[in-house]
Amino acid sequence: TPVPYREGLTDFNQFFSTKLGKPSITLTDLVRKEICEPLNERTRKSHKLIHGDLIADNLIVVPRYAGLDRDGESVVYIDWTRSVLKGFPEFDLGSLMSKLNVDEDLEDRIVGYAASLFEPESKDAQEESIKAYHRNRVLQDLVASHKYLSRADNARSDPQAEIFRNCSLLLFNRAIRKVKRQTQRMNLFSSNLLEELVQSRPGLYEITE
């Protein structure tokens, strides 16, 4: 049965407002201005088919001797149920990288290399690709953090709730670190956004440097 591709990604302003509880008005305005609107613009300009759920479990590496690719190994992508006709490739890259345990320096090198493949004609376009990647990662980590907090509230036991809270803490801290790092490296985010994110964290959170 052919996969019914979605036409485009969900509007990022809508995604943020429906997935992140009730953040402050100031934080909402900053996230929309610095993250959601640029990602919506990236979507409008890119118009590329993306997988939509590109994690390691949805990749199958076919060895060279299987005969499917005379130049070497082939990668088969499975489970296209979240695929999108008009997306941007940094969305898929972010999904894949979010599940990998790589340090920030290596991540930056991978993202830079990927940008040179996504946008081979222009250094400026490569920079926009890198910015789109980091904006998307911050937003996705914040939303995932909130999701785990909701799971903690509905957990069946205290140990299970603690696991969900720890997952939420990890993702929230990772988003904060990325905002701080990319503000220092690329001036990508404002100091106001960083301050609002830190102030919005649940009281049990301590941001680790």
How would you describe this structure to a colleague?
It contains seven helices and five strands; from the N terminus they run βααββββααααα. It has a three-stranded mixed sheet with strand order 1-5-2. Helix content is 60%, strand content 9%. With 209 residues, the chain is mainly alpha-helical.
Q: How far apart are the termini?
A: 49 Å
Count of individual beta strands: 5
Biggest β-sheet description = 3 strands, mixed
Instruction: Give me the strand/helix succession.
Output: EHHEEEEHHHHH
**Uncertain spans:** 203-209
Q: Provide the helix percentage.
A: 55-70%
Summarize the structure.
With 209 residues, the protein is mainly α. It has helices at residues 12-19, 25-46, 89-98, 104-118, 123-153, 158-186, 191-200; strands spanning 6-8, 48-50, 59-62, 74-77, 84-87. The chain contains 7 helices and 5 strands, in the order βααββββααααα.
Secondary structure: elements and pairs:
Elements: E1 6-8, H1 12-19, H2 25-46, E2 48-50, E3 59-62, E4 74-77, E5 84-87, H3 89-98, H4 104-118, H5 123-153, H6 158-186, H7 191-200
Parallel strand pairs: 1-5
Antiparallel strand pairs: 2-5, 3-4
Helix pairs in contact: 1-2, 2-5, 2-7, 3-4, 3-5, 4-5, 5-6, 6-7
